[in-house]
């Protein structure tokens, strides 16, 4: 096989719409591994393979359009034998365009062939399809004791399609229906062959649709065009939400626009509002932690995402105690799944609450949303959920000897580690030993501190003097306890966790960077942490490692013990900038941007933590999700950290403190920044050694801008 063909087989291209997503190789084929058409955590299409006769076409190029709506693969034929009275087709005479998109949970595909030869010939187009209805967790490698029954395919459309069915152990019958715009010349099981007469200069198109329900109108050019126009219009509408970033750097703009397009792709419109699904392929579903952090990353530009996330999570807050689900009244959901395995409770993830940090992050986001928007009416609707969430935090903290927010899974089926670094080996002592539970993570105490501060601020907004004093007091006690228990004086850094015996896991990880984001440390200790994070054992030149090199269990190829996660780097940068070290934030933004350039302008979920080598690209992590919501949101948090922009919706003001521009960028404009009913453009421009800011109001009530340079 030629190198281009090999590369195409191992590259992936993704599309998403609502609760459906498609992962295919460079040819557009679905045929192995984790590729497939999925809906509700079930694979509805496990094979979708195109051939010309017995051969795979030669790939010219393949890409998803910049707006993430269409996949386009341009191919040409290899040598084809003569068929009947027609001549053979020499290599490179047929141009084959494979164009597809998802709309309304349905796959639409158009295959167009054009003959660039001088005589007519027949092209034997063959489509092979199959559906295995495997649960997403099976596709990821989970082995089940038993499965349901694949039913016999239904040829209700004759040579124009087939319907696959599967009766699950949950008694649900799941279907996958494939339909063609014209009848196949020959059908062999689930292989459809079309003999297309190609006249020179005249194209021939075959339209295909795949959905979870059979019946309805057959595919046609008109249906394809209509659905394509609606799909593009809907994605364009999502991409226009919130303020927009433009700069003097075309490549920097491409990064920002790609990140914005990825967020539009991953965001589903739920009854409660827009909600960013975590990532494709493994996490295309609502996650709590990921969505809250994505909302925090984009809050300054688009508060609508935060509102949608808060509404959804409040509606799915735990109401009961369950060790299997790791739930307790007031806890906020970690993830939800709709596949067969979750429905049968083979796994707890149907609606799972095993995240210790999601609940304080939820409260943090509510406080940040109120400050950003001044939307007291929406906060009032959330107030019962906020009280319940804070009540859970308080109960767990009161049961801990040091007053910390800790975790221990209820059953062996749950997650053993329940912070954002949730792999089994991500928390340990300095000698590599795994700690006894329950475990108190350092960044989670920062989240709890910030949650108590948020509740105090919201109580003040509601004129609840008693609540304000109670929560402010809890925040102060948490701050004092963290400083007393987690600080390692000899290392000038915070340890990663405290174990069930009260012993500190004296490990240098990126987690304390989140503590800075929450504003817990004093200025002296924050400066020490910021300085350590920018040293070579953390900062690789591409971003911050999750674990400093030289620590026990350090491995730059691991999931959490030395890899680089862009969202983690962004949170650390925001924390560093919070304490005035804005030049370090500029350096981290530059590192992330230069990494993105090597990943086709799209930051992956994570990549390997090897030190940057001149002239060499960053090293990919082989099974990282791409796109991933909080990786797509990271550039916006990094930019905010550099510009020093804070929007105060309660007072109707915009604050800008000591702005810095990214290296090589002389101008950044923020278009249509919303503050109440007003819209403004903010222009940041390099003027000598300083950065100046200019305001363009778009309504009569231009909000005041407070600039501190």
From TrEMBL:
Gene3D superfamilies cross-referenced by the UniProt entry: 1.50.10.10
Domain Mannosylglycerate hydrolase MGH1-like glycoside hydrolase: residue ranges: 290-596
Example GO BP: carbohydrate metabolic process
Secretion signal, residue range per the UniProt entry: none
InterPro entries: 6-hairpin_glycosidase_sf, 6hp_glycosidase-like_sf, GDE_N_bis, MGH1-like_GH
Matching SUPFAM superfamilies: Six-hairpin glycosidases
Domain Putative glycogen debranching enzyme N-terminal: 15-208
Protein name: Amylo-alpha-1,6-glucosidase
UniProt source species: Noviluteimonas gilva
């Amino acid at each position: 096989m030629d190198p281009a063909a090999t590369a195409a087989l191992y590259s992936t291209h993704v599309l998403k719409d609502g609760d459906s997503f498609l992962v295919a190789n460079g040819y557009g084929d679905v045929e192995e591994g984790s590729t497939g058409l999925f809906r509700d955590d079930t694979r509805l299409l496990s094979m979708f393979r195109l051939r010309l006769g017995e051969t795979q076409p030669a790939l010219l190029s393949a890409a998803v359009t910049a707006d993430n709506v269409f996949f386009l693969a341009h191919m040409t034929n290899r040598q084809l034998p003569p068929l009947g009275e027609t001549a053979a087709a020499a290599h490179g005479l047929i141009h084959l365009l494979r164009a597809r998109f998802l709309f309304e949970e349905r796959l639409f595909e158009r295959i167009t062939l054009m003959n660039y030869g001088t005589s007519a010939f027949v092209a034997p187009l063959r489509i092979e399809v199959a559906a295995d209805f495997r649960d997403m967790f099976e596709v990821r490698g989970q082995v089940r004791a038993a499965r349901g029954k694949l039913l016999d395919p239904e040829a209700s459309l004759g040579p124009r399609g087939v319907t696959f069915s599967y009766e699950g152990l949950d008694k649900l019958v799941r279907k996958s229906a494939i339909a063609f715009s014209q009848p196949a010349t020959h059908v062999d099981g689930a292989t459809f062959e079309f003999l297309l007469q190609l006249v020179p200069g005249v194209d021939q198109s075959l339209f295909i649709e795949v959905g979870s329900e059979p019946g309805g109108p057959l595919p046609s050019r008109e249906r394809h065009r209509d659905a394509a126009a609606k799909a593009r219009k809907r994605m364009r509408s999502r991409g226009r939400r919130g303020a927009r970033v433009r700069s003097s750097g075309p490549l920097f703009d491409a990064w920002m626009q790609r990140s914005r397009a990825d967020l539009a792709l991953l965001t589903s419109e739920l009854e409660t509002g827009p909600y960013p699904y975590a990532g494709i392929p493994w996490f295309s579903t609502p996650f709590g932690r990921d969505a809250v952090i994505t909302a925090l990353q984009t809050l300054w530009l688009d508060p609508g995402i935060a509102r949608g996330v808060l509404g959804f999570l409040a509606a799915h807050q735990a109401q009961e105690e369950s060790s299997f689900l790791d739930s307790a009244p007031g806890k906020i959901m970690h993830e939800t799944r709709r596949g067969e395995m979750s429905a049968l409770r083979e796994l707890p993830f149907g609606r799972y609450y095993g995240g210790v940090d999601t609940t304080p992050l939820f409260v943090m986001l509510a406080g940040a949303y109120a400050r950003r928007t001044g939307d007291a009416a929406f906060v009032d609707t959330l107030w019962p959920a906020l009280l319940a969430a804070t009540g859970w935090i308080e109960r767990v903290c009161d049961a801990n000897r040091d007053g910390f927010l800790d975790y221990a899974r209820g059953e062996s089926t749950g997650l053993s580690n329940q912070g954002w670094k949730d792999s089994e080996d991500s928390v340990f002592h300095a000698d590599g030993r795994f700690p006894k539970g329950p475990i108190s993570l350092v960044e989670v105490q920062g989240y709890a501190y910030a949650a108590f501060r948020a509740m105090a601020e919201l109580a003040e907004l509601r004129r609840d003097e008693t609540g304000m004093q109670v929560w402010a007091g809890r925040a102060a006690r948490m701050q004092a306890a963290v400083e007393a228990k987690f600080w390692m004086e000899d290392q000038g850094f915070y340890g990663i966790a405290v174990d069930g015996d009260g012993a500190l896991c004296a490990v240098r990880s990126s987690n304390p960077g989140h503590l800075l984001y929450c504003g817990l440390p004093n200025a002296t200790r924050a400066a020490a942490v910021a300085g350590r994070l920018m040293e070579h054992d953390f900062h690789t030149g591409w971003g911050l490692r999750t674990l400093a090199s030289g620590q026990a269990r350090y491995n730059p190829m691991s999931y959490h013990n030395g890899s680089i996660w862009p969202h983690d780097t962004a949170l650390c940068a925001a924390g560093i900038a919070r304490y005035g070290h804005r030049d370090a934030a500029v350096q981290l933004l530059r590192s992330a941007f230069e990494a993105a350039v090597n990943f086709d302008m799209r930051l992956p979920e994570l990549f390997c933590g090897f030190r940057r080598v001149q002239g060499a690209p960053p090293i990919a992590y082989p099974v990282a999700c791409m796109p991933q919501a909080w990786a797509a949101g990271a550039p916006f948090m990094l930019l905010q950290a550099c510009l020093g922009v804070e929007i105060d919706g309660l007072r109707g003001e915009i604050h800008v403190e000591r702005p810095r521009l990214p290296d090589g960028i002389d101008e950044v404009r923020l278009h249509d920044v919303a503050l109440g009913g007003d819209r403004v453009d903010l222009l940041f421009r390099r003027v000598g050694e300083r950065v100046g800011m200019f305001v363009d109001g778009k309504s009569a009530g231009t909000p005041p801008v407070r600039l501190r340079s």
